[in-house]
Amino acid sequence: MTTMSMLKMTAAAGVAALMAAGCASSPEPGGAGGTATAGGSPAGGAVTTPTMMNIAATSGWKAEERLLPQQPILALTPDGGSVETPAGLAVTCNPDNGSLYGKLFNQPANRVGQSATYRLRMGAQALPLPGKFVAAAQGSAFEFEWDSVGLRTMAQLDMASFASDKGDVEWAFVRDPAAKVNAKYIGSLKDMAAESQNFLIYCNPK
Questions:
Q1: Degrees, nearest 5: CA angle 3-7-10
Q2: Helix, strand, or coil here: 131?
Q3: What is the Cα–Cα distance from 98 to 101, expressed in whole angstroms?
Q4: 3-class SS at 42?
Q5: How far is it, in rounded angstroms, from Cα 65 to Cα 200?
Q6: CB-based contacts of 147: which residues, under 8 Å, 6+ apart?
Q7: pLDDT in tens, 66-113
Q8: Judging by beta carbons within 10 Å of its beta carbon (0-12, 13-18, 19+), is residue 142 exposed, middle or buried?
Q9: Are 161 and 171 in contact (CB under 8 A)?
Q10: What three-state secondary structure class fits 19?
Q11: Among 68, 50, 95, 119, residue whose Cα is nearest residue 202
Q12: 152 within 8 A of 138, measured Cβ to Cβ
């Protein structure tokens, strides 16, 4: 074998080794360096929200028609509790025109009077909810106008959550109390489907 042939073979071997090293150092799509969680963040860098209260196993939904001047109400309440002291979320309506209004509780007291847009996450859907912060017994509540479609949809799901204008998941509502969710507050969807139907009957314009 000539000296020139040996040089060519050595060069070819060097190129092949470099190519192999390059392939080994490049992560495959979806590999350890590219895996994303449902929220779109890398699995190793996902931000979690500490849960401050979980009443998924000790709460349920109730609807009451109520007499004027009070309005019909649908509310998450502690087991054995009353709609007059809702926990987490309450919905009222104007029976004259059927308009629905939601109040999401346990919001920052220092935001009373401010406006914001929250998002209701229902599966792949994220419904924007423009509203404002109002005074409430639990610091403040985020008050927003809703519609019967959004309410009915949420009532049929296994999980829905409300994210703030700052991106925090404020409340998650689950059908299974053992479900693992990332939210500050966790409530139940128990009885919401049946009770929301009653509520919407009460809300029909008279």
A1: 140
A2: strand
A3: 10
A4: strand
A5: 10
A6: 100
A7: 988 999 999 999 999 999 999 999 999 998 888 999 999 999 999 999
A8: buried
A9: yes
A10: helix
A11: 95
A12: no
